[in-house]
Amino acid sequence: MSNLNEIAHRHGRDRWKDALFIGAALLLTAISIGSVTSKAAGNTREAKWTVTVVESNLEVVR
Fold first, then answer.
1. Is 9 exposed, middle or buried (0-12, 13-18, 19+ CB in 10 A)?
2. CA distance 8 to 1
3. How far apart are CA 34 and CA 1, in angstroms?
4. Cα diameter, the chain
């Protein structure tokens, strides 16, 4: 049974790695939420969009 205790001790939780993982996950979550908010998108009313439709009856015959 001493081998099992040694294995459990060697493969125990590493609190620094756990804290780093949780911190990175929170940071990425905050960045992804911030990128889709209206404040991050800026003022979209000033943007002037134009749409151009081009029609063509081009036929390719072999």
1. exposed
2. 11
3. 51
4. 82
* 40 contacts: CB under 8 Å, gap ≥ 6: 34
Reported as a single tens digit per residue, the pLDDT across 9-22 is: 776 677 888 889 99
CA-to-CA separations, 27 to 31, 50, 53, in angstroms, rounded: 6, 37, 43
Return the HEC string of the chain.
CHHHHHHHHHCCCCHHHHHHHHHHHHHHHHHHHHHCCHHHHCCCCCCCCCCCCCCCCCCCCC
Of 29, 8, 26, the residue nearest 18 (C-alpha)? 26
In the chain, % of residues over pLDDT 70: 76
CA gap 42, 34 in Å, rounded? 12
